[in-house]
Amino acid sequence: MSIRISFTLENDLAHQIEQFATEKRIERNEAILRLIEAGVEKYTEDNSFVPVPRERSFEEVKVINRSLESLTDAVVDLKKEIRVVHHILDLKWQKDQLPVPQETRRWWEFWKGL
Q1: Beta carbons within 8 Å of 32's beta carbon, 6+ residues apart
Q2: In whole angstroms, what is the distance from residue 45 CA to residue 37 CA?
Q3: Tell me: the pLDDT tens digits for 86-101?
Q4: CB neighbours of residue 31 within 10 Å
Q5: Residue 22's Cα: distance from chain center in Å?
Q6: I need a surface site. Which of 58, 59, 86, 96 has the fewest CB within 10 A?
Q7: Is residue 113 one of the residues assigned to a domain?
Q8: pLDDT digits (tens, 9 = 90+) for 3-19
Q9: d(CA 59, CA 9)
Q10: 43 and 64 share a domain?
Q11: How many angstroms separate the CA atoms of 2 and 108, rounded?
Q12: In a 3-state reduction of DSSP, which class is residue 43?
């Protein structure tokens, strides 16, 4: 049975695979297949063999991109909320600005009501 696999590699690992392929004078896909087979054989022979889990840099980039996207969405939502609050405050301020009642003016301040 054959399967098609797509994955992302770090530059260092891709360079090591290319170097292995050129040393053995085989194409890159064959080199990847041989390295996978050798890893499976090593894993089945040695029961104590546990591959070291390590965080790949491209995974870190994905996590950072997701965080940035969520942060950007939060900032956009905050911007909308600020516009709404600003609009509400502006309406309230305009409503509170009533003209000075006639009784509080002096007779010479007649132009304030015009």
Answers
A1: 17
A2: 12
A3: 999 888 887 777 665 5
A4: 20
A5: 37
A6: 96
A7: no
A8: 888 877 888 888 999 99
A9: 10
A10: no
A11: 98
A12: helix
What pTM was estimated for this model as a whole? 0.43
Quote the CA–CA distance of 112 and 45 in Å, as a whole number.
98
H or E stretch covering 89: helix 57-96
By C-alpha distance, which of 52, 18, 17 is closest to 36?
A: 17
Residue listed under structure tokens 């007649």: 110
- Tell the residue number behind the tokens 């996207």, with chain if given: 69
| Cα 54 off chain centre by | 21
Residue range(s) defining the domain that contains residue 67: 55-97
Helices 11-24 & 28-45 angle (0-180, nearest 10)? 100
Report how far apart, in Å, the C-alpha atoms of 108 and of each of 37, 100, 101, 114 are.
101, 14, 14, 13
Same domain for 30 and 41, yes or no, is yes
Q: How far apart are CA 67 and CA 72, in angstroms?
A: 8
User: Three-state SS for 53?
Assistant: coil
